[in-house]
């Protein structure tokens, strides 16, 4: 049975640490990786038809930029790893969407980097790590 790992990746130092951890783990167990980037996106219900058209155009541009600037360099850094690597690029709530990616790809685990404020703001507003740990359909590893 192959072990598939979804890695939440945004190009930050903590995401790079998570990718390195997941790469080592996948190599040890003969697994594969899904490098996933989620663009936060909340729907607006008060848009005119012209605003909706403009928003969809910008959304397409953002997807292209994220693919080129974030996912492509991550995949390129893995070319000598010998691992099977796929990508996922989605819009939505980061924690929820990473869980959905894990389900749809058949992943066994999600790995993310710990990023953000350890203080009051994360306790009041939550964090991706906390939300994902509470809602993920598979085990979550949070890499410091």
Helix and strand element order: EHEHEHEHHE
Under the CATH scheme, the architecture is 3-Layer(aba) Sandwich
Please bin the fraction of helical residues.
40-55%
**How many H/I helical runs?**
5
Tell me the structural class.
alpha/beta
Q: Give the CATH topology.
A: Rossmann fold
CATH class: Alpha Beta
Model regions low in confidence, pLDDT < 50 over at least 5 residues: 120-125
Largest sheet: 5 strands, parallel
Distance between the termini: 28 Å
Report the β-strand fraction as a percent range.
15-25%
Give the CATH superfamily. Answer: HUPs
The geometry reads as: globular
Work out the radius of gyration. 16 Å
The count of DSSP E runs of length 2 or more, i.e. the number of strands, is 5
How many structurally independent domains?
A: 1
- Strand order of the biggest β-sheet: 3-2-1-4-5
Description:
The chain is of the alpha/beta class and 144 residues long. The protein has a single domain, classed as Rossmann fold (3-Layer(aba) Sandwich), CATH 3.40.50.620. The chain is 50% helix and 21% strand. The protein has 5 helices and 5 strands; from the N terminus they run βαβαβαβααβ. The chain has helices spanning 13-29, 49-77, 94-105, 120-125, 128-135, and strands spanning 4-8, 32-39, 84-91, 109-113, 140-143. Strands 3-2-1-4-5 form a 5-stranded parallel beta sheet, with helices on both faces. Strand 1, helix 1 (13-29) and strand 2 (32-39) form a beta-alpha-beta unit. Helix 3 (94-105) packs across helix 5 (128-135). The radius of gyration is 16 Å and the shape is globular. It starts with a strand and ends with a strand.
